[in-house]
Model the fold of this input.
Amino acid sequence: MNAGILIPILTVVFANVLYHVASKGIPTNQNAFMGLIVNYATALIACIALFIATPHNSAFGEFTKSNWAAVVMGLSITGVELGFLYIYRNGGEISTASLIASILLALIMLPVGIFFYGEALTATKIIGALLCIAGIIVISI
Done:
């Protein structure tokens, strides 16, 4: 794996660890949506700072490049965060909730990649999917 992929993967892993620890730490007596408002306000400030610090065209010019995907991604992030927040509030274990969700996601993304993006279905991917299913069964026992 090249550094162009490895470093972003490590960033995702590190950020996800922080994400799940913080998600489990949000007070259960706080309205879930206020928690998300604070999350998004923090993310907005961080993104504005990073936008300013990186090379770009005008803010309006960059904004006009946005399409439906940015809106759908924002909505989907809200769903992911709300889902994990309620998983943890309802007793979900930090050691397995993310693992099960990620495995299910991988199993769903396999046909998405094949049917919508023309990715190849290989024996390795089939074996990996079967191992994922076995893993969910084993971890859920």
Q: What stands out?
A: The chain has a mean pLDDT of 94. Residues 3-25 form the longest helix (23 residues). The radius of gyration is 18 Å.
